[in-house]
Amino acid sequence: MGKKKIVIIDDEEDLCHLMKAFLVELDYDVFLAYTLTSGLQLMDDVSPDIAFIDNNLPDGSGWEKMTYLRQKFPDCKINLVSAYQYITPEMKDNSAGISILEKPLRLNAIKDYL
């Protein structure tokens, strides 16, 4: 089995590159998208094992796509990322493979999650 694949969808490009450098050192294949549209296409192309999805993206709310992504990628561990937490009952269900990470992100928190 190859490396696990991670998709990061966030419009903060510096954060994406920092996370990518950190995760590549941990031996993951990492793919970046800076908009919701390009991120959803990337999810289709890559079929990641893990995804980090920001809520407030230039072209929509990443969190609003959570139900769709859970259905399309049931084995993907989804990490919702935002400076402002908005939690629905479905998001609290950790058995669904969803976690919520609050910005600013700590790299050790990401490593602990993985």
Architecture overview:
The structure is a single chain. The protein has helices at residues 13-25, 36-46, 66-72, 89-92, 107-113; strands at 5-9, 29-33, 50-54, 56-57, 60-61, 77-82, 98-102. With 114 residues, it is an alpha/beta fold. It has a single domain, classed as Rossmann fold, CATH 3.40.50.2300. A five-stranded parallel β-sheet has the order 2-1-3-6-7, sandwiched between helices. Strands 4-5 form a two-stranded antiparallel ribbon. Helix 1 links the parallel strand 1 (5-9) and strand 2 (29-33). The mean pLDDT is 85.
Relevant terms:
alpha/beta; 114 residues; Rossmann fold; two-stranded antiparallel ribbon; 37% helix; five-stranded parallel sheet; single chain; globular
Task: Give a concise summary.
It contains five helices and seven strands, in the order βαβαβββαβαβα.
How many domains is the backbone divided into?
1
* Percent of residues in β-strands: 25-35%
Largest sheet: 5 strands, parallel
SSE series:
EHEHEEEHEHEH
Mean pLDDT: 85
**Annotation field: number of helices:** 5
Please identify which CATH superfamily we are dealing with: Response regulator
Separation of termini? Answer: 17 Å
> Could you list the spans in which at least 5 consecutive residues all have pLDDT below 50?
none
The assigned CATH architecture is: 3-Layer(aba) Sandwich
Layout of SSEs?
Layout: E1 5-9, H1 13-25, E2 29-33, H2 36-46, E3 50-54, E4 56-57, E5 60-61, H3 66-72, E6 77-82, H4 89-92, E7 98-102, H5 107-113
Parallel strand pairs: 1-2, 1-3, 3-6, 6-7
Antiparallel strand pairs: 4-5
